User: Fold this.
Amino acid sequence: DTAVSQTPKYLVTQMGNDKSIKCEQNLGHDTMYWYKQDSKKFLKIMFSYNNKELIINETVPNRFSPKSPDKAHLNLHINSLELGDSAVYFCASSQGAGTANRFGSGTQLSVL
Amino acid sequence: EDQVTQSPEALRLQEGESSSLNCSYTVSGLRGLFWYRQDPGKGPEFLFTLYSAGEEKEKERLKATLTKKESFLHITAPKPEDSATYLCAVQVVSAGNMLTFGGGTRLMVKP
Assistant:
């Protein structure tokens, strides 16, 4: 199956911990993204990354950092987790200008 | 700042009762407008891309249209399986391929 896959599906952790969410796409796309969907279901871009450029939404705290070991992977690292980080995080990818982002199935992060 | 507003927030329809969802936008340099469907617990599923005013796209019971200020998603004779949240998003020239989403319309179709 060609897709965007992310792990884990659910992540429950304590405040102050550091955690990572992994994302892989086998679509051959050149750009990957992380989005955050809050409790009101509003979806907001966090990062856009291809092998040339990282674009960061200015509202994203620097505790969040994307790391890309290769073109098919974009992992999300979160340091010093806070209660307000609880949300669903979606990975996505696209190829070329004006094309749709294809989304993974999401990681529900709960910070206790 | 780019803004995308969807209305209504929620819509209840009887099976077979056609209706439209609205997505109004204020952006600089629209590259494309995208419609997605999102089911509970899943990621957004791509439906349509519209690039210029006057453009229309159709898929089964869904038809998307675009003007210079807004887009409509028309649902003809909906079925219960059309129940989902429908998301509208814009892509602007200055922001690469990133999407700015509206708040979504939660559609419930009763049999």
User: Anything to note?
Assistant: Chain B has a mean pLDDT of 95. The two ends of chain B are 41 Å apart (CA to CA).
